Amino acid sequence: MNYTIALSLLCIERFNGERSTNAVYYLLTGKKSSQTIQDAGWYQLRQYYHAIPQLSKQAFDNMIKFLLEENYICNQDDTNNITDKGKEKLGFLISKSPFPKYFNGWKYQQLDEIFWKRLSLLIQTISYWNRNNASFYPVQRSYETQSWVKNWLYVMKNKYDKQALTKKLYGELQSILSELDKTSQTISPTLLIYRLSSYQKTGMTSGQLANTLNMDEEYYAICFRSILHYLINTISHNRERYSLLWKLLEDLKQRVVLTQSTQATYQLLQQGKSLKEIAHIRRLKKNTIEDHLIEIALIDPDFSIEGYVPPKLQEKIIVAAQSQSTRKLRTIKEHVQEADYFMIRLVLSKWSESNKQT
Amino acid sequence: MNLEKILYEKFSYTQFRNGQREIIESVLNGTDTIALLPTGTGKSLCYQLPGYLVDGCVLIISPLLSLMQDQVEQLRAKGEKRVVAINSFLSFEEKKQVLRNIRYYKFIYISPEMLHNEGIKKILQSLTISLLVVDEAHCISQWGYDFRPDYLEIGTVRKQLGSPVTLALTATARQEVRDDIKRFLKLEMVNEIIFSSDRPNIAYMVQRVNGYEEKRTTLLSLVKQLQGPGIIYFSSKKLADEWAKLLNEATSYNVGAYHAGLDMEQRILLQQQFLFNELDIMCATSAFGMGINKENVRFVIHFHPPVDIESYLQEIGRAGRDGEKSIAILLYSPDDIHLQMQLMEGELPNSLQIEYFGQYMLQAKVTINNKEQSSMDTFLQQPLDGFSEVQWRLLRKFYLSSRDENTFKTSIQHFIEKRKQWKQIKLQEMNQWIISSGCRRENMLHYFNEEKNIDVLNCCDHCGITMEIYQKVHSIKKERLKLNWQERLQEIFAISLD
């Protein structure tokens, strides 16, 4: 639970009393709603988005209760904010278990999971195949992953013989992980390798490995995923060098992160329909369509908001937000009377998108 | 037709186990069959083998998703590729693809609620189904310990599929349950093949203790003495976790913890480790054991009594599948009754959960109105956090067959009340068995209207057990694991550096 505490305190600190406590939960579990996507963008918390997807609401609520009792956070205007004691605790937890630098929950949400499923099943399959044994219990059961691996092997068999393929895949993994081992002090390839199942040797579960390494289970899970993120990132940037591994990602790159409903709105928008028309066509409220636009502004760097807010007004809103150092809409509106709330949200979203560090 | 030949070619066994041949011959003769075989004696072979001797496919209705997945993987591991499971684990796209290629499959596993889907039913109607299998058929009866209302409609579906030859399988069913199976599956001329529920190679022992402390020390000393592999059943995830940790430190065994709180990947790994003897002991909740074909389990210990005799028999049946001497030990303290009551109530949805479910569906309805492409089904497929699979299925079933929210609430509450009263009786029977004098095996058999007609050496604690034969022969020192990722990576790929 320690690391959930650390990340929750971190979010609460960033939100600075401007967002509800539940917003922290939605962010850490990666809720796919326009509001949460907006929070992640506005408060520069994208890295932490979807960092603890397995966290249950009940466990979260209990933790918040604990944080209040221990006076790490305190109640302030209907929400919670961090106390000095909380800041100290946060500093301590993060210095003990630093947030892994390769981790990017926003960028690699779900991608990491699919990548791991493929990688672990592929390696298990090759490990058996290599010893002329085709009968084993697969570590991944999803139909999608199993057919993907089958197909991968089918294609590769025409290109390489068994030994060459094994050697090449080993070589790529050995090289990419050695590089990680050299550059990172905190994250060792051990965290990943011992999870793998092979010929007559079952991999460890996340719980078992965390235990063996004396790590907090949640911190372990984040470090493990940070290795996946490192791999995905490195492979995508060195496609020739890691040509076999790149095959695991090739077809995944195109996935859009917009929510389904927003995608539908975006399509209509690109056909030149106005907000009002879209609301009419989709039989949705105008508010909902506006939420979709906010989401698009947050995600698509090419999306222009000039048609909705004139550049001059955009500037005024940004200045107000900066000078007041807030994302609180009411405060900003007090300083820029001529803007409506939708305009302010749209500008803040666009602005956080262009400011984001990748 | 040489059954032994196929048994060897497809399953690598040289001979049938008790009962298997009779059941296989019965269904191959085209007779509807109810078969009662004790847990752990190879029920699935009874429909898998005939599959290779008939032209059409075998359709298997199975109540638990995890069990279904296990059985599919086991068949695949035997080299059978033409096997598939149609259940809520499949995404929309995957389901479409599977259904498009449905003719390819020999063995089709399906969960009962999928049978209600009109599209799926149509496709199934177009197939030649040579054998319809109803696994865990006792789920059809409200007199059974594990009644699943969605099983009730299988009979109708069976007719709609043209009444194919049907095999109803179960490990535990008293006469009234078997009558229900016949009635609800609409079986007329039926061959009942009943084998004794007795497993003579398992010794029964009840160890009475006073309170939790004594239970702890008893369990610890038992595990230190007993020969593994073994399973220890606990009432909660928390206990299973704590004890796995404790036993790992205090004994020379490698111990794992298995419960429904773990994600799918961890569960698969733990099952595998146990199967490969990488783990000696599993501390588990009742979520563990179904569909695990481990032959050499030497002991099953219950840290608390289960809520009915059928569950107990099923859980201890995981011991000694290889026919070797094994022991089942039940730790019992008089104050366990409170725990049993809790367990019993936890199986059914409570009023808070019903309320929450109703709210959730109300919200779902609003969303469905907004989005044309989604249907009610997507919201009902997977249980929400905090609901067990069994609870969810019940809620789903009652929700879909109710006119409105109010009828839903009243009908499910009424059902739960009735179920609780029945379970109360089952609970009393369990506890009666625990405290009764006389031979435990005989008492157990009487419960199932059977007689004990063989003498069993090391029968039960009342008849006398020589504990020595269950004790550890030699103890091994546990080695501390040294982690070296480079070496492990080489090992995985069988790469040698010279």
TrEMBL record, chain A:
Keywords tagged on the record: Transcription, Transcription regulation
Listed InterPro entries: Helicase_HTH (IPR029491), Sig_transdc_resp-reg_C-effctor (IPR016032), YpbB-like (IPR008308)
MF-aspect GO terms: DNA binding
GO annotation terms (biological process): regulation of DNA-templated transcription
Pfam families to which the protein is assigned, alphabetical: HTH_40
First and last residue of the signal peptide: none
Domain Helicase Helix-turn-helix, first and last residues per copy: 261-348
Presence of the UniProt keyword Hydrolase in the record: no
Entry protein name: Helix-turn-helix domain-containing protein
UniProtKB/TrEMBL annotation, chain B:
Gene Ontology molecular function terms on file: 3'-5' DNA helicase activity; ATP binding; DNA binding; four-way junction helicase activity; hydrolase activity
Domain Helicase ATP-binding span(s) in chain numbering: 24-191
Pfam families registered for this protein in UniProt: DEAD (PF00270), Helicase_C (PF00271), RecQ_Zn_bind (PF16124)
Domain Helicase C-terminal residues, every copy: 218-372
Highest taxon in the source lineage: Bacteria
Entry keyword annotation includes Nucleotide-binding: yes
PROSITE patterns recorded: DEAH_ATP_HELICASE, HELICASE_ATP_BIND_1, HELICASE_CTER
UniProt record, GO biological process: DNA recombination; DNA repair
Keyword Amino-acid biosynthesis: no
GO cellular component assignments: bacterial nucleoid; cytoplasm; replisome
Protein keywords: ATP-binding, DNA-binding, Helicase, Hydrolase, Nucleotide-binding
Protein name from the UniProt record: ATP-dependent DNA helicase RecQ
